[in-house]
Amino acid sequence: MKNKKVFLFLSFGIFIISLTQKSYCTSGGTCEYFSGLLSLIFGWIGVFMLHLPAFPWIANPILLLSWITFNKNQKISFISSITAFLLMLSFLLVDEIIDNEGGTTAKVIFYDLGYWMWLLSSFIMLIGNFITYKKSENKIGLKQLK
């Protein structure tokens, strides 16, 4: 299906572009320190420190799972895309996040283009999965009518 590839490549492409953008700003520093790529590379540290505001980072491997399973296992891809989107969206609820290597936190004061593109990449995958699911559901329904 041609449309499936469009959703997959668009989601992946926007994700990659999001890595080149500033993702958020904190009261403790400037936005330059928090590019999407730096957030991707170092975000797991907050997860392993059990810093709750860092848990939306887990959306990255879950979105990867959705991409990998998109053509192989529609159910896993769909559930993964829902989970990734909700985790990414939950970052809007974060008040403070680790601001530096010393472990001090600072207030998140602004969500920049990189964050919104990151969120959009998972939303596109979610929409692609939903449309694919609906099309496959319609095919099953038509087979049962015959």
What does this protein structure show overall?
- This protein has a 3-stranded antiparallel sheet with strand order 1-3-2, covered by helices on one side.
- The protein is mostly helical.
- The chain contains 5 helices and 3 strands.
- The longest helix is centred in the last third of the chain and has 33 residues, at 113-145.
- The model has no long low-confidence stretch (mean pLDDT 85).
Provide a quick synopsis of the model.
With 146 residues, the chain is mainly alpha-helical. It contains 5 helices and 3 strands; from the N terminus they run H-E-H-H-H-E-E-H.
Mean pLDDT: 85
Residue share in helix: 55-70%
Percentage of β-strand residues:
5-15%
Largest sheet: 3 strands, antiparallel
- Strands in their spatial order, largest beta sheet: 1-3-2
What value does the Rg take, in angstroms? 17 Å
Give the topology, please.
Elements: H1 2-18, E1 24-26, H2 36-48, H3 59-69, H4 74-90, E2 96-98, E3 105-111, H5 113-145
Antiparallel strand pairs: 1-3, 2-3
List keywords for this structure.
single chain, 146 residues, mainly alpha, 5 helices, 3 strands
